[in-house]
Amino acid sequence: MDMKMIDQFILGGAIASLLGFLLLCYTFQGKKKSNRASMEMQRDDYVKNSQDGECQQEIAGNTEIIIVGAGVAGSALACTLGKDGRQVLVIERDLTEPDRIVGELLQPGGYLKLIELGLEDCVNEIDAQRVLGYALFKDGRNARLSYPLKDFHSDVAGRSFHNGRFIQKMREKAASLPNVRMEQGTVTSLLEQKGTIKGVQYKTKTGEEMTACAPLTIVCDGCFSNLRRSLCNPKVDIPSCFVALVLKNCQLPFPNHGHVILANPSPILLYQISSTEIRCLVDVPGQKVPSISNGKMASYLKNMVAPQIPVVIYHAFISAVEEGNIRTMPNRSMPAAPYPTPGALLLGDAFNMRHPLTGGGMTVALSDIVVLRDLFRPLHDFNDAPALCKYLESFYTLRKPVASTINTLAGALYKVFSASSDEARNEMRKACFDYLSLGGIFSNGPIALLSGLNPQPLSLVLHFFAVAIYGVGRLLLPFPSPKRAWLGARLISDACSIIFPILKAEGVRQMFFPATVPSYYRAPPAS
Ligand SMILES: Cc1cc2nc3c(=O)[nH]c(=O)nc-3n(C[C@H](O)[C@H](O)[C@H](O)COP(=O)(O)OP(=O)(O)OC[C@H]3O[C@@H](n4cnc5c(N)ncnc54)[C@H](O)[C@@H]3O)c2cc1C
């Protein structure tokens, strides 16, 4: 049986390589057409013409970088640039502690990035919980997938926490730096002059209209970003919503593990967010969820969802529904499609989003900040906006292998983990659960991808197709019938239809062969 599986694994790899090659050829052809026809700035309500002289005073005030938004990306970036001695102005709509249901589980790969940025102490004293892996549940069976942490320092693990507490820690750290200024205000538009962003217009808490100018504005205004429209081509997809609850006075079946239930119609997530609370996120496909106000949501959760919850937390789940603190959030995904613009840059969810099933958003944002910090380090100033813009094109390529692997995994896994009326898709779902349950390389590889500890694009494609081949092998063995062979062919075709569009949207060349992209080698502008 083991030898058969190894054969299937090798065959899967060969098929994956061939398919990857074909897709690459296709993408090279398509890319030429899809480049933005013109680099002109798209003016809308969120971009205003900057009057001559409007920005002189601020530039004299020496602000080098304006950061819009102090969420996960903005506050981590402010700390990082501030520590590197940059003069930073952060404008955040609300500086009080956020109370949100997003960004509550930081993968170990993200924690490694926090260490690289010197921000690991921001998960201390917030009752953060160590996360050591995942537990998968399907049809009464379960499988434990541990993060491959043995080669790392004992402190390295995932962390789960209240998002607001984590952000507040990073904000405090940024504000403690003498060269970082934090202001509460809502940025209403970017100021543009002859195609270059010169700064922002914002409204203070008291309603006063203000202007702030700097050679570089970094927009980190999150998933609902209005400001991104002139800086990228936002193709936002909302495949589902999360319905969130907090469970109290109970213990998860596998402490210190994220729990994923392969439920019907789509997955349910559970993880601790403090020593006494467990976050439950129930995925509801589509963009509409049952109404909370008329009680339809509560009855959906009690009748459809509760029977699929592990028995040990069933009562806590019902109590949480009855308590009524139910919140919802759309799950967005958006590939990065920037319009490189002098004087401005996008970061975090404003720039790039993926389905939150795998908890990869913060890891991507922190990884991007590491790339950006390293690109900024040789620069003395940011005043030559066109030259800086050209140089920063390398950012879009350098970030790709890590960001795209995490993004692709999230999109593909969401599709595979969701129930379907299609028999081939359900075979893939079963094969995926069983493949991950095999342990060894079959669980270590995928969990290393998910954790962000080894986000290698090739490993992702190989494991994805290995799952498909494993599924086909089970259908054909011991004796293939025409019906099962046909189902196997449909399974492979379905697997291709899941992963190839995601890879294409991410950019195959940048993801798999970044070194062949000319912008990879951009040198810093001479100052
Ligand atoms: C339901 C859900 C669950 C998720 N769970 C996880 C998870 O477990 N792990 C994980 O890694 N990722 C998760 N994510 C993704 C993660 O939350 C994001 O990737 C991350 O928060 C992105 O950080 P950000 O700084 O770009 O945005 P945010 O953290 O949302 O910050 C944006 C900031 O900008 C401010 N702002 C907005 N507009 C303006 C304006 N005009 N002027 C001034 N300020 C403004 C906001 O007040 C906010 O503080 C989840 C996402 C969703 C939807």
From TrEMBL:
Q: Where do transmembrane segments lie in this chain?
A: 6-28
One GO-annotated biological process of the protein: response to hormone
Membrane topology field: Multi-pass membrane protein
Location comes to: Membrane
User: Carries keyword Flavoprotein?
Assistant: yes
* GO MF: flavin adenine dinucleotide binding; squalene monooxygenase activity
Specify the Squalene epoxidase domain's residue ranges.
214-482
Please provide the record's keywords in A-Z order: FAD, Flavoprotein, Membrane, Oxidoreductase, Transmembrane, Transmembrane helix
What is its pathway? Terpene metabolism; lanosterol biosynthesis; lanosterol from farnesyl diphosphate: step 2/3
For whether the record's keyword set contains Transmembrane helix, the answer is yes
Please explain the role this protein plays, according to its UniProt record.
Answer: Catalyzes the stereospecific oxidation of squalene to (S)-2,3-epoxysqualene, and is considered to be a rate-limiting enzyme in steroid biosynthesis.
Protein name in UniProt:
Squalene monooxygenase
Write down the species: Nyssa sinensis
- Write the lineage as a comma-separated list: Eukaryota, Viridiplantae, Streptophyta, Embryophyta, Tracheophyta
